[in-house]
Design brief:
Blueprint (H helix, E strand, L loop, with lengths): L1 H24 L32 E9 L10 E7 L5 E10 L5 E6 L12 E6 L6 E5 L7 E3 L2 E3 L4
């Protein structure tokens, strides 16, 4: 009887390992936390020109991913807008970039200035097929000239 109990434990443990391995292999074990949304603000304008730079001195890079399984999202439309060096919004500081085949993007701008008591920030709007549109903001750290900023989108229902 004791050998039967031991065999049963081995079978149950083996079944657990097989289920866990299958879940990991199919991507069920990996999910990405969605990027937090933030306010759109009153200065958004659609139709920003396609360009990867609107100034010099601050570089953002990242990967656009799906929250479902952390897979890269190719061709995501990423819109940026921020204040100019004088601290006001203008069309020269709006841009659209698209994520490449690996989901990567790169955007260069001037370091945004604070205004009306708000910290320096860059507005971002991301849209991709099969995913909800994300509106968020990036807050550069003082003294840094580069920042990684992945954008994780929630799949549409």
């Amino acid at each position: 009887m004791r050998w039967l109990r031991g065999a049963l434990v081995v079978i149950i443990f083996s079944a657990f390992l097989i289920i866990f391995a299958a879940a990991a292999a199919t991507g069920l074990a990996e999910t990405c936390k969605p990027t937090e949304s933030d306010m759109l603000g009153p200065f958004y304008k659609s139709g920003a020109p396609v360009r990867s730079a609107v100034g010099k001195g601050y570089i953002m890079t990242g990967i656009v991913k799906s929250a479902k399984d952390c897979s890269a999202i190719k061709g995501a439309r990423i819109e940026f807008w921020l204040v100019n060096p004088e601290g006001t919004y203008d069309d020269d500081h709006r841009a659209t970039v698209f994520s490449d085949a690996t989901g990567s993007y790169r955007f260069e701008s001037n370091m945004p200035k604070p205004y009306f008591g708000r910290p320096p920030h860059i507005h971002i709007r991301v849209s991709a097929e099969g995913h909800e549109t994300l509106v968020t903001q990036h807050y550069p750290e003082q003294g840094k000239t580069r920042s990684p900023f992945d954008l994780v989108l929630v799949p549409s229902r």
